[in-house]
């Protein structure tokens, strides 16, 4: 039901000229809310599922490489990873080659949850792609990213 509301809101946004920044902020909150609801059974949120999926795709990655990969504030990434370690989803181990570096990998439980979360996110992406003009949406996002990088 909430997903249908999200899709209606996306469609509604496409039909009304309005403050783009405000509409993107509203859409961000709606997407995060939908993700939170769908991932709640796995103990994940819109803020932390992303890390598990990246670790699933990059097993045993060095933490500094992981920070570059996710392109987010390093202290935020560190807090999120530490929380996932406490939850038993991620293992952080000291590198044999450089004791200043940590390797990150999913635990068995972390891998299972990451796979389940990935299915949920793929389903959400699929539903959004069907309901929106996919190419237009991706073009708009790419153009907005380019403009923001120049600012």
TrEMBL record:
Pfam families: MarR. Residues 17-146 form the HTH marR-type domain. Keywords: DNA-binding, Transcription, Transcription regulation. PROSITE patterns: HTH_MARR_1 (PS01117), HTH_MARR_2 (PS50995). Transmembrane segments: none annotated. One of its GO terms (molecular function) is DNA binding. InterPro entries: HTH_MarR-typ, Tscrpt_reg_MarR-type_CS, WH-like_DNA-bd_sf, WH_DNA-bd_sf. It comes from the Bacteria. This is MarR family transcriptional regulator. It comes from Paucilactobacillus nenjiangensis. The lineage of its organism: Bacteria, Bacillati, Bacillota, Bacilli, Lactobacillales.
């Amino acid at each position: 039901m909430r997903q249908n509301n999200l899709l209606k809101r996306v469609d509604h946004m496409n039909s009304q000229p309005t403050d783009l920044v405000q509409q993107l902020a509203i859409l961000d909150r709606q997407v995060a809310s939908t993700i939170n609801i769908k991932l709640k059974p796995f103990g994940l949120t819109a803020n932390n599922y992303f890390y598990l999926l990246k670790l699933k795709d990059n097993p045993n990655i060095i933490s500094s490489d992981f920070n570059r990969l996710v392109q987010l504030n390093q202290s935020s990434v560190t807090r999120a990873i530490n929380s996932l370690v406490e939850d038993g989803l991620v293992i952080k181990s000291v590198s044999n080659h450089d004791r200043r570096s940590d390797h990150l990998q999913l635990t068995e439980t972390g891998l299972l949850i990451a796979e389940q979360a990935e299915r949920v996110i793929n389903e959400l992406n699929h539903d959004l792609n069907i309901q929106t003009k996919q190419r237009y949406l991706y073009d708009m996002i790419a153009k907005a990213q380019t403009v923001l990088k120049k600012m």
